[in-house]
Fold this protein.
Amino acid sequence: MGHSHSHSHSHGHSHHHHSTNNKKALLTAFILIAGFMVVEVIGGLVTNSLALLSDAGHMLSDAAALGLSFLAIKLGEKKATISKSFGYKRFEIIAAWVNGVTLLLISLYIFYEAYHRLLDPPEVQSLGMLTISVIGLIVNIIAAFILMSGDKDHNLNVRSAFLHVIGDLLGSVGAITAALLMYFFGWGIADPIASIIVAILVLISGWRVMKDSFHILMEGTPENLNPETIKNALLKIGQVSDVHDLHIWTITSGFPALSCHVVLTDDQGHDAVLKKAQGILHDEYGIEHSTIQVEGKTEGCPSHHGTCN
C-alpha cells in the first residue's frame, strides 16, 4: 500500500508544479500582450492602418485567451463540491470554446473591413505603422518564449494560447511587410491585403480551438486513446472474459476518465483483477480516473436493459 501512496504523491507533485508554471507563464504573457494591444489600437487609429487594427483584434483575442486560460487554471484548482463533483475543471474547456467563437467573429469583421478598403485604399502613415508592428513582433516573440516554459504540449489551454501568439507573430510580420511596401512603393493596397492574411490566420486558429473544445464538451473519446486497444489490454488480464459498456472521455486537458464493465470467468478474484485493470489504465494509458464494474459470469451484467453497449 505504501508504494501506491508514494507513487500518487510524486505524481501529484509534478502535476502541481506544471500548473504553477502554467499560471505564471499565462499571467506574464497576458500582462505583456494586453498592454501592447492598447498601444496597437491607438497606433492603428492614429496611422489609419487596418493591418495594425486587425493585429490588435488578434491580440485582443490573445489577451482574452490568456486571461481565460489563467482564470481556468485558477478555477480548476477549486475543490470539488457535492453539486460539482468534478470541481470546476470543465470551465477551461468552455473558456476555450468561447475563445474560439470570438476569434471567428473577429476574423469575419476584418474580412468585411478589408473588402471595403480594397475597393478604396485609404491613406496610411506607413512609418508609424512600421515602428509599432516591429515592437509588436518583439512583444510576441517574448510572449511565445514565456509560454514555452508552460506545459504547451499537454494542456489545451496553454497550447491554444501559444498558437494564438504564433498567429499574432505572423500578423506582426504581415503588418511590417505591408508598411515597407507602402513606404517604398506607395502600395496602399498592401494594408488590406496584410489584414486579410491575418484574418485567415485568426479564422484557422479559432476553428481549431473550437473543434477541439467542442469534441471534449460532447464527451468525445480523446484522440490519443484508442478504445479497442484499451479493451484488448484489459481482456489480456487472467480471468477476464469480456469487457463492455466502455466509455472514455475527457474532463479537462490532460484529465482522461474511463468507465467500463469487466466480466470474470469465475466469481472469485474480484480484487486482484480490479487492481490489475486500474494499474494497466494508469501506467500504460495515463488514465487517472477510472470506474470499473466487475461482474461474475454466473449472474452476468445486472443492467436493466439486458445488454450494455
Remarks:
- The chain has eight helices and three strands.
- The longest helix spans residues 2-47.
- The CA atoms of residues 35 and 265 lie 64 Å apart.
